[in-house]
Amino acid sequence: MPMPEIAADTVERSPVQLRPRDLEAFNEDGAVCLRQVIDHDWIEYLQKAVETNLSNPSEYFTRFTRPGDLGGYVMDFWVRSHTPDFDEFLHGSNISQIAADCVGSAQARFVFDSWIAKYPGTLTRTPWHQDWGILGLSFAIWVPLDPTPEGASLEIVRGSHLWHKQFYEEKFQPEFDSAQTDISNPDGSSPEPMPDIDAKRDQYDIMRWTMDPGDCLIFNSLCIHGAYGNPYMQPVRRYISRWAAPDAVLAPSGKLIAERMRKQSGASFPIRQDALMPFEGDDFPLLPKRG
């Protein structure tokens, strides 16, 4: 279905400013949920953008469910450069203001974006993991495109970004095995195995939220997070943008992640674990805070 043309300046931006208690939760807990801060015109725009992208996926499109599995769990990465409607949202909505507030700056570094869809009956879970690849403050902003009950929500281990530890994540699927065999931290130390959080849930403070379109969830990239499937009768789709502080640098860990970032950005940084390279070029723009 073709995307209707909507100029960015025809969609009203919702003014939003993170309150001190929002920033406190983000900094101390590692995550904060903001309610009804994204205009619903933009939500409809993103819903259609996902369907457009799904009909013509990028080379990074990934299906996590296997043939014969119930439901469907799919994801596409770096979609801004593949489907321009996502770029329109990034420049036209108030998302960059939210990001800039998180870093306490007049602008924030956009890193990359993706969307996730879990269709009714999906049993495949998103395993517990952290989002590596950046040295310095980095975070994700999740925008739900459908009502999301707690049972299909992202779960985050409160305060885990403050543990100052990196963990091997569980494998998402066999193609990610190569990323598990060569990972090291920029300082040369080795990550620890991911704790078995599901087996000892009572030992962790796990946060999750019921969310509606118009809400957004912001969380630090080093927070341990994961999600169940979708046992409900409606799809659960989310658009996710990744951001960083203006002074953050690339620190790719593992050949798979480094190669994907290199191919997308065209950057010439070497594929090695200790690469600490500045973000450069149009693929990683500094987007201004919008008043």
TrEMBL record:
Feature: compositional bias, Polar residues: 178-188
Keywords assigned: Dioxygenase, Oxidoreductase
Claim: Iron is one of the keywords in the record: no
Location of the region described as Disordered in the Swiss-Prot/TrEMBL record: 178-197
Native species: Ruegeria meonggei
Protein name per UniProt: Phytanoyl-CoA dioxygenase (PhyH)
SUPFAM superfamilies membership: Clavaminate synthase-like (SSF51197)
InterPro entries xref list: Phytyl_CoA_dOase-like (IPR008775)
Matches recorded under Pfam families: PhyH (PF05721)
Single GO term (MF): 2-oxoglutarate-dependent dioxygenase activity
